[in-house]
Design goal:
heterodimer, A: alpha/beta, 6-stranded mixed β-sheet, 46% helix, B: two-stranded parallel ribbon
Amino acid sequence: MADSMQRYRRYLQLWLVVVVALLCLMALLNYLVDPYGMFDTARLQGLNAIKPASGSHVRLAKPYQVTGYTPHAVIGGNSRPELGLNPANACWPENLRPVFNLALPGASVYMQARTLHHAIAGSDTRLVLWGLDFLDFLTRQASAGQALQWPPGRMEFEDRLKVNADGSTNRGYNRKRLQDYFQTLFSLDTLKDSLKTLSGQANRYSSSIRRDGFNPALDYLDIIAWEGQGVLFRQKNREISELFSRPELQLFQGASQWSPVFESVRRFLLFAREHSVTVVLFINPYHVDYLLALERAGRWSQFDAWKRELARLADELGVELWDFSELNSLSAEQEPAPGDKKTILKWFWEPAHYRMEYGDLMLSSMLQRPCDEGNVDPVGTLITTGNIDAHIMRLRTDMLHYKEQHKPAIEHPEDVAF
Amino acid sequence: MLFNSYEFIFLFLPVTFLVFFAMARLGREAAIAWLVVASLFFYGWWNPAYLILILLSMVINFGFGEFLSRAYEHRRIARAKIGLALGVMLNLGVLAYFKYAGFFFHNINALTGSSIDVGHIVLPLAISFFTFQQIAYLVDAYKGITQEYRFSHYALFVTFFPQLIAGPIVHHKEMLPQFMRRDTLRPRLDNVSIGLSIFFMGLFKKTVLADGIAPYGSSVFDAAASGETLSFFVAWGGALAYTMQLYFDFSGYSDMAIGGARLFGIRLPLNFHSPYKATSIIEFWRRWHMTLSRFLRDYLYIPLGGSHHGRKRRYFNLMVTMFLGGLWHGAGWTFVVWGGLHGLYLVVNHAWHRLRQALGRAGTESTRAGKLLAWLLTFLAVVTGWVFFRATDFHSAIVILEGMAGINGVALPNAIIARLGEAGIWLQGAGVGVYLGGGSDFLFTWLWVVVLLAVVLMMPNTQQIMSSFEPALRVYQSDNKYQIRVGEQLARRITWQPTAGWAVATGLVAALGLLALTSVSEFLYFQF
């Protein structure tokens, strides 16, 4: 009996040692590999430089990364600037470096604004480039009796931000940060992603977020190599058409010229002005397929109204507003034919996402510095309430011309892609 | 409080364990009182308001039980019958109010056009379990099988935290004698070793396996609910993923209950025994949620007459039992359909047995091919049932079943077809469709399904792994005639012993289970 109990004692002792040792080892591995870039552990070539799981964890990691990176310029927005604007571009003047790309895929404008708010609060940030997206401004109508208020109810992501929506300090920030760090270290999900990181270093087409927050979108190249870029166009065209066709998504609340989304922009601009941070707003470029889908869905007048309201806001708060949603030889780039797995467009990944090469031209315009953009005409127009009508008319005319020239293909949109 | 939470594993369980044995030095009653208090704390963790209901329910049932026991002792049969009827009705009435009133009046309103509004009734936690457990107690007290004159003991039988929330459904007569044993009051290293090993195997099943495969089933059921049509492999992938999730979730939770109780030297009844190895529906119900099957058999099917009043009556009793068993799982028509389906399966199964008997084939062992066919048929029937069980409404279930039947065609993600090269072209030529997106989801769904299917069919279950140490009450003895025998030799070799090798293996399982308690928030946003 005593012998038997001795066996159980040894079993329990060893079991406990194994559990504790394994937990510590796995946490150490997660820390060293740092699959989401949360801990800013050294990025070693062939070991953890490529981070395949980081792309799906930016909402967790970027708010912490940006505080450690102490950038002088920050890029905000959704996935379009995340994939398009390169913080390492030569165009950035020395006094604005380092630059951090804080754009968050799929984030609402409120989330974008609040995360930028967090980035510039108490920091040495001098410039914010904020990419605005038409679809992000389409929201559901508040039901009758439902108060239209700003800020909306506190959301979970705001626990990770240093400041509250009213500008006060978030007292729970450090606790949340500690909790996120703990949960990331002691997590099976992270362990799987650490192993994925270790085993994925040979894949040169892996998805990966750089230390400066930029997403080079190399995984698109993998899809293109296997399936062709036409597939990306077809899938995105279907998605945006579906989104535009939702009648519940509207620009303004009721008959007003107001929505919580515009209010998010206005509040952020006010905060930035109080803290002497320059903000440049810009409207992302779209491929012509995207513009055509927007028009087919009967959203064009909303698109114009959106730009007008943005121009008004920009004027009111004294910030620049650039419009890159224009029709030119870049945005009218013809997508590859079905089955073509070789051709890769120079300016666009698919109708909604422009490539870094387009972003470089945009930076050249917005930073007003001639960079190495080859023989391409400057892109974008600086818009104000003064030139907005002429600007809007120009795009309408360009669209009419384009449609005239491409009539058969536009009448059968599926044929354009395939 | 959930078993799979930090607060349970690192605070509640160790504190309850240590204080229990410290109190045991003061005497049995002190230790029992502590365990009741701790269990009530465990129950009230979500919402302390629930405590009022469970306490009231226990006081009333204890009173009824005492009355019935005395009536039995004094042979006052008529009074006992009235007492039992009142007690059972009261329990069912409370359950009906909290669980079914909304459902009932929703249907009444739909049928009659009325607009009766019962308001939002919050379902108290575990009410289905503690109601059944107490009904069983009343019936047993009425029959003189059990009796209890101390409220604290009765409260422990109802609230003992390992089995309180999701079973196993226990009987008073199998629990209290264990607490009365002298050695229950002393901590034993063997019980702790066995208990922790079982608990963490259960935790692994729940947090690593069930939670790991869950998103793949959920996405398909969500797609069905939002009106998407599903192609063959997608629908099957979702149904099978949920089939695996449910088993590992519930059997993992039952293992944690059994392991947690064992730390205190208490053996709970077994609740699962590799149900997906069953080769008939009858066998499936002997292996799935075994304590519920036992309850339904003893307190519903047999009182209805069981098999003693002819074939037709037996089939009727089976249908009624399974319909009500379905409704017990949830107040919704999908649960009723699920129960009805299983009732029908059981009727067919019994009719098949009868046919075999008539052909003189009863009791003979099937051939390998016959068993395989029987397994396949049973498994398909079970998976079909789970579609109704999981679907949010009848329409979603039909959408998934249509997909599984191939009505919407067979299709593969373009990403996979493209990587199959010539084979992909051939598949398209053979009529296999292509859809965009969802390539990695598809791949991981089927990887999980194949791996977990292999585990449920070939690996020994917790009971078998722990078989040398009496892990549970009423250990299941399987009849070889009725099960597929895959990986039997492996099963015989994987038996737990308090050795260094097993300490490392269970330590790994525990560490992975603990790491899986936290999920890192991920934002899946396909192609941006």
